[in-house]
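2.7 Reproducibility. Because tokenized structures are sensitive to small changes in the input, we list the exact sequence used for DUF3617 family protein, including any N-terminal residues retained from the expression construct. No trimming or masking was applied before prediction.
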Amino acid sequence: MKLALILPLALVAFIGVARAEEADDFREANKTEAETFNARMYAGTPGKTAYACFVRRYDAEHLARHPKQKVASMKLLVSAESDSEDKQLHNSFRIGFRYRHRSGDFDSSGSCHHTVLTKKADEIRLGCGVDCEGGGIGIALSKDDKSAIVRLESVRIWLHNQPTEDEDRTLVAGSDDGIFRLDRTDTSECAALATDRKELAALRHK
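Resulting structure tokens (single pass, no recycling of outputs):
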């Protein structure tokens, strides 16, 4: 009985669902399903490294229709790296965003250890988590692969490039901040999210 509860609870934070019972609608994707999704995410079979960038800057009209939305703009960088030891592809994410009524740039990042599929097979998501019980996000793709659908309930955030800052900050989903549709764009648009010069060069020359 305990095992049946552990799996949904473990997945809740990482796939962007609100309640444990919603996680019952998902199952772990098999190898073929995960590889197919990775090829969609990176617009081709990923090599040793791969990147995908998605961006949304919400205009005044959109924000007027969603008065409770806290986020004014968001960037998502999804990265893949092939491990030479285990021969597996490891996905990770980084988001950068600005609040609507607060100054400053904020980040979050983590690893994506789960690829899950709805039991109806109508959506597949990467389940991504932030270390130290920092919550997480679920990342799906639109049918045409031109947009990323980001779902979250709660995720730890920090001021841009300051992941070790002392202040504990969290982006919590409200009525208008639980789902974000971001448009695929050139990886250079996500250059600000790069963590080192090698990655920065790769993003700028894609």
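The chain has one domain: 2-204.
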